[in-house]
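Issue 218. Parser rejects a valid record. Input:
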Amino acid sequence: MPSPLPAADRLVCAVMAGGSGTRFWPLSRHHEPKQLLKFFGEKSLLRITMDRVAELCPPQRQLCVTAQRLVPAVQADLPDLGSNQIIGEPVARNTAPCMAIAAIVAQQMRPDAILVLLPADHFVADAARFRAALQVAAKQADTGKIVTLGVTPTAPETGYGYIEVGASLSKAEDGLFAVQRFVEKPDLATAQEYLVSGQYLWNAGVFVLRADTALRALDAHVPAVTSAFSEIRLSGLRPGSQAFAAALQVAFERSPSISIDYGVMEHESDISVVRLDAGWSDVGTWQSVVGLKPASSANFLHGPVIAQDCHDSVLISQGPLLAAVGLRHTAVVVTPDATLVLPLERSQDVRQIVAELQKLGRTDLL
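Output the parser choked on:
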């Protein structure tokens, strides 16, 4: 039976905040990963994400799925959420199990819930446009479809997955299309072809679908995931209880580790995408941060920094004065116990530094 409430009034927004953000070392650490960092003032990326959707999804319809070790920090960062709205993953199992537990809890909140799954650490310049895209997605999701958001590409980016757009499904201003296919991260030549064609969007990793649709899709394509969560699903155990915590431990230990993209999206034949033009960035590397600098600034600066004749650089200090002269396309990130210096085009190589520290047993720096 159709719900009497409009789709937008039944949204349950679940933010996926379990990542480690190793490419943002030395700022991002085990106890304070990227989503808890405060790049843009006094709020963390996680808090900004929650605030961005609050007009559509007030705090009582918000969830946060994070690593168990981060639950106290997340609770401190999101004081409007009750302890039963913050779910701590006992072990990391990628995003498909996250979808499963979010859908189960969303149905407990509202049997007719429409679930919005959001990464915790993205930047969106125009929050109103983002919410408008979610509203279009919610209406489409209410028909039983799986919907994702696709960002209009502005450069031949090789670090993102792409979505090939099919037929238009609505009036042009809604930007709603069928998904032709999902494409892995391309090489530069292929990314340039995608950009010129106008038929491809960046995959933003945002999914909108009814909670029952999410569980149906998981049942169909990754039944090992939903099987692992069967006790919680059938018993009605709710977050905040010891019984739920014990069942969650067992569920995550039993569940395979698989992403929503690989586990579900690549196997579904009828997916819709809403085009998003809202100044989006996944804030994935130090190189992506320089693109978020204020229009009036030549660099992205945070903390006590003096920059002379520097351009298109990321200069961040968590304490000591950082003075830089004549830098171009460079990241310098200073913390009390470590300093990173690298050309921005080598931003992906930060992972190699983290791997080397792990080999050396320097857990104090991780």
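Fixed in the parser; the record now loads. The chain has twelve helices and 17 strands.
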